[in-house]
Amino acid sequence: AEGTPKATVSNNEFFAWQMEVLRNTSRCWSGFSELKGWASLELEMRRAAADFLAAHGMPEDEAQRRSVLAPLVMWASVHSTGSSHPAHIHADSTVSGVYYARVPEGSGGIEFVDPRGVTAREQGTNGESELPKPPFTHSMAVDVKEGELVVFPGYLPHSVELMVAPLEHEQSSSSRVSISFNLLGGWEPPLTTLGH
């Protein structure tokens, strides 16, 4: 879009390519599975999703089963100076999360917006969310750290804050790299089979 920083456009194009691969093959890009530590990261994301579900009222055995059986969609984001991502939700997901692989100085955090005050009609079909109406206009920014995994419900509007890393850093070393996930499904109990 006109006026969008080049860094944001590049990240959005990278995301769109990953989602096209997912739509065409029903799988995340196969190159990710070849990366050292990818399988361990996926397992840790599933564990974190199970813990989140159990901590928020789902029976522990169902939370464990869901975290193993439900599809887990993973993708990478690379944000550099001037890059951000607008508020959006993951309506098809029970649990979402972000692992921060590289977080240089000046990286934008993740900002969560109070979901009250936004109706389903206002959330749009592309996952972008309108900002809540008063009095539900509160947001909370989380300053992220390298190696941290942040987990939250898929319905919670969130955005990536503007990255303002110093310009003197090299492009390759100043990019914030994160791996996001969605554990697909809803909160309806119990999950017995998927796709059958």
Give a written overview of the molecule.
It is a single chain. By secondary structure, this protein is α+β, with helices and mostly antiparallel strands. The strands form 2 sheets. Strands 1-8-3-6 form a 4-stranded antiparallel β-sheet. The chain is built from 5 helices and 8 strands; from the N terminus they run ααααβββββββαβ. The relative contact order is 0.23. It is globular. 29% of the residues lie in helices and 24% in strands.
For this entry, give a set of tags.
alpha+beta, 8 strands, four-stranded antiparallel β-sheet, 196 residues
Biggest pleated-sheet summary: 4 strands, antiparallel
DSSP strand count: 8
Number of H- or I-type helical stretches: 5
Instruction: Give the N-to-C terminal Cα separation.
Output: 40 Å
Shape: globular
Radius of gyration: 17 Å
Q: What is the residue-averaged pLDDT? A: 81
Briefly note the structural class of the backbone: alpha+beta
Order of helices and strands: HHHHEEEEEEEHE
Approximate helicity band: 25-40%
Lateral strand order in the biggest sheet: 1-8-3-6
Which stretches are low in confidence, meaning pLDDT under 50 for 5 or more residues running? none
Strand proportion, as a percent range, falls in 15-25%
What is the topological layout?
Layout (H helix, E strand, L loop, with lengths): L5 H20 L4 H4 L4 H18 L4 H10 L2 E8 L5 E4 L4 E10 L7 E4 L25 E4 L6 E5 L4 E3 L10 H4 L1 E9 L12
Antiparallel strand pairs: 1-8, 2-7, 3-6, 3-8, 4-5, 4-7
Helix pairs in contact: 3-4
